[in-house]
Amino acid sequence: MPKRTARPCSIDDCDRLVVARALCGAHYRRWHLYGDPLGGGPFQPGSPSKLCRVDGCGRVHFARGLCSPHGRREQRHGNPEGGRGGAVLGIASRVQPCSIDDCEGLSQSRGLCWSHLNRQRYRENPKAWAAYNHERRARLRGAEVESFTPAEVFERDRWICGLCRRKIRKDLRWPDPRSASLDHVVPLVDGGAHTRANTQASHLDCNLRKGTGGSQQLSLIG
Length: 222
Fold this sequence. Notes:
The protein is built from 7 helices and 2 strands, in the order αααααββαα. The protein has a two-stranded antiparallel sheet. The longest helix is centred in the middle third of the chain and has 15 residues, at 126-140. It is mainly alpha-helical.
């Protein structure tokens, strides 16, 4: 998904926020379809400052002049300020920039853009994010997916590389070539599943060599 920034579109008289290639979402779609951000029929740019009509809410409107949270309240309670908590939802405005210096992304949560937020989440729980990334790759390829962490597989295999049959040191971390890596016995690109039965512990460099066609010789290393 293109990353939104706090800068306005580069097209004259368009004040929408940039999505990609210095263009707002509407002009970016025209560039993608016609090869020209001004291609196609007449263009009527919308207002980027259209905020939720509920007083005190700084979010950009989603539909019917309401942001997504207030829109859901109107659907459930018939009133955008209905339900517990009323109009004060305690959420930051989506038009605020990321709190990281020199970052032009928009704040999404904790005052951070998606990119910096994900980096912070990874630092807080790297094992959970490693598992998430493996599952995401498998789902994108339509593979069967089981939920488990790489550490479970490493412990099951007693920290022995399934490719070269040598010990994996627990104290080494990525990107050390001898650090632990999760290997799919039948690769995802070949239709393999992301399951415990189709995964094994491996050294990072062994896993990379397997990906470049060197796996046939790895099991012969002594």
